[in-house]
Input
Amino acid sequence: MLRTAGLRPTPSRLAILEALAREARAVSAQQLFVDLRGTPGAPGLATIYRTLSALADAGAVDTFRRGDESFFRVCRDGHHHHLVCNNCGLVEEIEADEVEAWVARVSRRRSFTVTAHRADIFGLCASCR
Output
């Protein structure tokens, strides 16, 4: 995944990616920094930000915005969408076909040609409700 993003697999970057891959929730750079602090060779906050940005730019991780903060999550390959809990950050992937019919219907009604789309639905998961 790091090589796909054009990054050399350094110990710091591997630690960041491994920590991110263990999470079911979308996490911020600050959360990763706290989680990795105290581990041998722990990356600094700037390294975490740069690594997450490069991974997101390469499409290796998905990015979610809540307020002014970005959250990151490793998702499966292929086109899909998300349900995102505003409280705990849990992310559930939705099959693309569950959203595609709606996208086609809306764009057709408005004579709009879709070149790309992203559907993230925010709310509260069952545990936080």
User: Anything to note?
Assistant: Helices lie at 11-21, 29-36, 45-57, 97-109.
